């Protein structure tokens, strides 16, 4: 038998991504390498694993569906060998399945991953970016070792380690008259057009801020994609509320945004590490937790401006 773990890993990536190109981007391997590995696997097994449709990508055949289950089990068993060796020798190595919340992943995930792998060259990080509820489900199924997320909903059986507090703030276009302020209250925003981040839990969090202040927001759009919201705000379609403070102040179309302090006492989001409480952390997971505690704090969050409160509101002068 000449099946390799690498062929199985490439097959799993292609099956989950639904295309060679997406699998290549996910595992950072050239498309020809992925395609060749799958062809070799099909030849060795004497079975067609995928239906290849140019417009629709890849879809698993019945044989491919069965192999996917077994391949994941084999890769899981192989990873157990690395973990056992790491625990026995005291070395930190192996693959870390890391989840990250999609709202701050573009800022946090690259530096966290790169710096951890630089500190531990024997480690490979397999990232997953998704919403909070999906991360919880994958942690529960042991598909993720640990995740970076918020503390908005931490069910019984999970553990959350806080790293940084991110207070809410207001984002407006650089050309908006409101941009001349340093702070503004929810009451002052009541009549302004509001673009709401329409993700589970995030939506409830922002609406709860208005409810606590006794204010009804003028919601003109509910959108699930932060980049779309930032571009619409930069185009003066409305304002939004956010907790992340990207160092890059420009939207994707090049227009710039300004952050204003949200006046009043509001609950911050707490960014931290989320894990399944019933699982005993491996040496690899413990090393990653320690790395994050050293790297991330309320005074430094990768990819973001420090969440420092601005001075109180000043009036606009003519």
TrEMBL record:
UniProt cross-references to Gene3D superfamilies, sorted A to Z: Periplasmic binding protein-like II, Winged helix-like DNA-binding domain superfamily/Winged helix DNA-binding domain
- Pfam families associated with the record: HTH_1, LysR_substrate
Cross-referenced InterPro entries = LysR_HTH_N (IPR000847), LysR_subst-bd (IPR005119), WH-like_DNA-bd_sf (IPR036388), WH_DNA-bd_sf (IPR036390)
Keyword hit for Glycoprotein: no
The question of whether DNA-binding is a record keyword is answered with yes
GO MF annotation terms: DNA binding; DNA-binding transcription factor activity
- Residue intervals passing through the bilayer: none
Instruction: Identify the GO cellular component terms for this protein.
Output: protein-DNA complex
Q: Which residue range or ranges hold the HTH lysR-type domain?
A: 3-61
- Which controlled-vocabulary keywords does the entry list? DNA-binding, Transcription, Transcription regulation
- Return the similarity comment: Belongs to the LysR transcriptional regulatory family.
What is the protein named?
LysR family transcriptional regulator
Q: Which organism was this protein described from?
A: Pannonibacter phragmitetus
Its taxonomic path starts at: Bacteria, Pseudomonadati, Pseudomonadota, Alphaproteobacteria, Hyphomicrobiales
């Amino acid at each position: 038998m000449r099946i390799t773990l690498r062929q199985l890993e490439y097959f799993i990536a292609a099956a989950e991504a639904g295309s060679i190109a997406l699998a290549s981007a996910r595992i950072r391997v050239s498309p020809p390498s992925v395609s060749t590995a799958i062809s070799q696997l099909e030849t060795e097994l004497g079975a067609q694993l995928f239906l290849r449709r140019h417009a629709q990508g890849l879809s698993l055949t019945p044989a491919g569906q069965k192999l996917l289950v077994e391949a994941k089990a084999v890769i899981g068993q192989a990873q157990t060998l690395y973990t056992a060796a790491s625990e026995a020798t005291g070395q930190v190595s192996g693959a870390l399945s890391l989840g990250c919340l999609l709202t701050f992943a573009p800022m946090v995930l690259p530096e966290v991953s790169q710096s951890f792998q630089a500190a531990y060259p024997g480690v490979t990080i397999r990232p997953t970016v998704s919403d909070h509820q999906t991360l919880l489900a994958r942690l529960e199924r042991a598909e993720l070792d640990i995740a970076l997320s918020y503390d908005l909903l931490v069910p019984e059986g999970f553990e959350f380690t806080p790293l940084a507090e991110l207070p809410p703030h207001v984002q407006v276009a650089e050309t908006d008259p409101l941009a001349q302020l340093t702070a503004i209250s929810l009451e002052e925003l009541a009549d302004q057009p509001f673009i709401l981040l329409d993700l589970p839990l995030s939506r409830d969090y922002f609406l709860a801020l208005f409810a606590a202040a006794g204010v009804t927001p003028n919601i003109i759009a509910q959108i699930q994609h932060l980049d779309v919201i930032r571009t619409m705000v930069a185009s003066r379609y409305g304002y939004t509320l956010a907790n992340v403070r990207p160092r890059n102040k420009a939207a994707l179309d090049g227009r710039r945004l300004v952050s204003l302090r949200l006046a009043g006492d509001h609950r911050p989001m707490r960014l931290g590490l989320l894990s399944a409480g019933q699982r005993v952390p491996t040496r690899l997971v413990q090393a990653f937790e320690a790395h994050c505690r050293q790297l991330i704090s309320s005074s430094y969050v990768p990819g973001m401006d420090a969440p420092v409160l601005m001075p109180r509101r000043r009036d606009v002068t003519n």
